[in-house]
Structures are given as C-alpha cells and as structure tokens.
Specification:
Strand order of the largest sheet: 1-2
Number of strands: 2
Largest sheet: 2 strands, antiparallel
CATH topology: Hypothetical protein af1432
Shape: globular
Structural class: mainly alpha
Number of domains: 1
Radius of gyration: 15 Å
Number of helices: 9
C-alpha cells in the first residue's frame, strides 16, 4: 500500500483522541458502530487490496469535526484537526469526503463549503462513506431507511437524490469486489 509515511494511530489512541477533543458520546458511539461495519465490509473484499487499519481508524475518526459543529463543515474541521495534529492525510481525506455520498463542487458550494469536489476516491474512503450511511446514530439501518429518514426530514432535494445515487453506486462497486 502506498500509505503516507505518517503512522496511523491505534484504535485506543483514536478513541482517546475523540474524548480529548470533546466529541459527544453519542457521536463516539456512532463512530464505533461505523468502524465495526466498515471493517466488516472491508473484510469481505477479495478482489482488491484494502488497508483495513486505515478503514477502521478512518471510520473511528470520520466525525471528529463534530467536536466543533454538526453542520456540513464538520468534515473540513475534522480534516484540518487531523492534519494539524500530524496524522496522515488519508485520515483527513476520509473526514472530508464522507458527507452524504460525497459532494461534488456544486453541492459543496450549495451547502456552504469551498467550491471543490469532496467525493470519496479511494476504496477505503468509499468503504467508510458507505458504512456511515448504514447508521442512524448508532442504530444500524439499510441505505433505503437512512435516505428515507433524510427525505422525510429535508424533502426529496436534488442534493439528497444525487447522494443516494452515489451511495448506491459505491455499494455496487464494493459488492463487485467481494
């Protein structure tokens, strides 16, 4: 794997970091559940190489920016926080690219983020993004149930419909690697 030379923190270190920066306990529970699901998905992949350690720690830390905000900006705050603490860029990118099904530049601008693509590119980013959509809080749900909750809460907006299509495509890509 061509992972950056910086060290991926251990699971224990990642959990301590979440506490240290005051990520709410409900978000920590969510992140632990997402990490479990992400590792489960990654373990089933047989037709590609997956950095399972990066998947697990990336999933644990994907919502670290929620220590400051629950808006879409939590993704960028999380990425910046991890970079500032010297963690590998791959972890920061997992934070930045997990929102919905990833955001293209137009969607990013529409939700108040800098205008650029925040689409999951690596297999590890896609796995964490997909695993995250399998949870409402720390309760496991189907992708359909997750999006139906969002549709009920926010309406069948263009951004959510695009996101659902992206997540379904990611799910197909990953299933084809199993």
């Amino acid at each position: 794997m061509n992972r950056e030379e910086k060290i991926i923190p251990s699971r224990e270190h990642a959990l301590e970091l979440l506490k240290k920066v005051n990520v709410p306990s409900s978000v920590r529970k969510h992140s632990i559940a997402v990490a479990r699901k992400a590792v489960e998905i990654a373990s089933k992949i047989k037709k590609a190489e997956v950095d399972i350690e990066l998947v697990e720690i990336g999933a644990l830390l994907h919502d670290i920016g929620r220590s400051k905000t629950h808006s879409f900006k939590h993704s960028l705050i999380g990425g910046k926080l991890l970079r500032n603490k010297g963690y590998p860029n791959e972890l920061a990118l997992i934070c930045e690219r997990h929102i919905l099904g990833g955001l293209d530049a137009e969607d990013a601008e529409n939700v108040g983020l800098p205008k650029k693509d925040y689409l999951p590119e690596t297999l590890e980013e896609r796995i964490v993004c997909l695993a995250d959509k399998h949870f409402a809080g720390h309760r496991e749900v189907t992708i359909e149930q997750r999006f139906n909750r969002w549709f009920k809460k926010y309406g069948r907006s263009k951004i959510l419909l695009k996101s659902k299509k992206r997540i379904e495509a990611i799910q197909r890509q990953i299933n084809n690697l199993m």
